[in-house]
Structures are given as C-alpha cells and as structure tokens.
Amino acid sequence: MSSSRLLDTRGGGAVAPEFLVSPNMLDVVSPSGDRGGMMLGQGTKGEPLTVSVLRPTPTRMVVVGGLYLARQIALRAMATGAWIIIATGRPQAWQPVVRAAGQGPDGRPSQLVQLRRLSPADLPRPTEDMPLLVIHDGGHVPQELFPPRAPWQTTMYVLPYLHPQAASTANNADLVLLQRLPMGQAQLAGQMWRLRPQMFQQLTQLKDDQVIAMGQDMWAHLRLYTTPAEQQILGAVRRGD
Q1: Which domain range does residue 127 map to?
Q2: Model confidence over 107-142: pLDDT tens digits?
Q3: Global pTM?
Q4: Which of 11, 25, 64, 227 can bridge 48 by disulfide, Cβ–Cβ 3.0-4.6 Å?
Q5: What would the pLDDT profile of 67-89 be if each residue is shown by its tens digit?
Q6: Residues 6+ positions from 150 with CB-CB distance below 8 Å
C-alpha cells in the first residue's frame, strides 16, 4: 500500500491546489476543506482530519462499508469542482448525488456528475483545473474498468464488505477507509494488512459515524463530520445502505 501525504491532521490545509466551482454549486454543497483538500472528520482529540483525494498523481482509494460515506465523498469532491463518474449497478442509490449537481444552462442534469454502467468506457481527460473522481460501485470483487492512469484522476472502489478476492484492489490502494466490520471480516482485514489483534478488534467496535483511515504507516481513527446541507441530501450519518 502506498501513500503520499493523503491525510493532514494539522488543520492548516490539505495537500492539493485550489479548484474552481460555480456559485450555484456552492449553494448546494459547501466545500469542507481548504485548497482542494477534503475535511473528512475529527480525530480522537477533536482535531480536523483532512484528506487530499484529488492529487497530481493517479490515486486509488477503497471504501469498505455503507454507501453513505462514499456518497459523502462524492459530494465533497463535487464541491471542489471535480468531474464525478459513477459506474454502478444500482443507479437509483446515487440519484441524490446526481440531483445535488443541479442543472446545466440548457436545463438538463449537470454533466459534472455522470452515471454509467459497469463496463469499460472512455473517460474525460482530467486536468489540474478539472480533476476527475471515478467511483466504482461494482460489488465486493471489483473489476479494473477504470484504473487510475492519469494525473488528477482518483478511482474510488466502493466495497460493501471485504472478500479475499478483493485483496489485490485493497492492497494497491493509496488510502483505505474502513467502517465497522463484523468479526470475520475484521479478521480478514487483519490478514490482508497484517494488523495487530487490537487493531482488527477496533474495527468491530466502530460506531456508525466512525471510520478508520489506513495507508502506508497510517492508522487514524476519526469521527465523520456531516454538514447541514449534506444531511438534507443524504440524511443522518449511518453505517448501512
């Protein structure tokens, strides 16, 4: 697993440049980080934890758990001005994110957020001014349909639960976000990442609004922070979906 300053606990800013977003989008979702970073939550001492999701290097993320966290990340990436491509077999589950993007000048849904099938397809060319977040919501053993190959492209794999066949995807991730796991899956996580017993025990005791952020030499326990605007779109913080 590789990592390059993905998590910032200083509260002084994330490791990413500024992106531009329209005033209409700011009315829907307020950016929750500084200079392109994403405020994910608070640490055990109440310190802000900021994640640099959109970076000048191809980036791979894995989210293990419910859809709430994945949709929250999509909203926050959207608020920084990123393109969002969602490849999924359950498009209805992502409609709140599509609606949050609003409409373009022609009255049609904004092209900043696009739903696609789980099949290979061409992607927009990401740039520093218009980074790209590809969300692969394809079950517990994802295929490599949209691997991150270009600077400013991040591919986020949404896994409803851990499976031994997902080990390659998980181990190649720059950042893994883990929500509460049952004991069997927590033990599998321990085997995948060579966790100490107290670490995978911790995974079984997380509350609905708690997440473990894991990367190279990183194990951070955090509590999710949800803005009022996000609550209107997604509802209350929860583990499931």
Answers
A1: 53-234
A2: 787 888 999 999 999 999 999 999 999 999 999 998
A3: 0.86
A4: 11
A5: 999 999 999 999 888 999 999 99
A6: 58, 125, 126, 132
22 in a structural domain:
no
233 burial (CB, 10 Å; 0-12 / 13-18 / 19+) is middle
- Residue 4 is assigned to a structural domain of this protein: no
What separation in angstroms does the CA of 218 have from each of 1, 90, 174, 214?
A: 10, 32, 11, 5
Domain-embedded: residue 5: no
Helix, strand, coil in percent for the chain, rounding step 5 = 25, 25, 50
Residue-wise DSSP of 152-217: TEEEEEEESS--GGGHHHHHT-SEEEE----HHHHHHHHHHHT--HHHHHHHTS--TTEEEEEETT
Number of domains in the chain: 1
Who's near 168: CB < 8 A, 6+ residues apart? none
CATH of the domain at 156: 3.40.50.300
Closest CA to 190 of 180, 203, 177: 203
DSSP H/E element including 92: none
Residue 75 in tokens: 């909203």
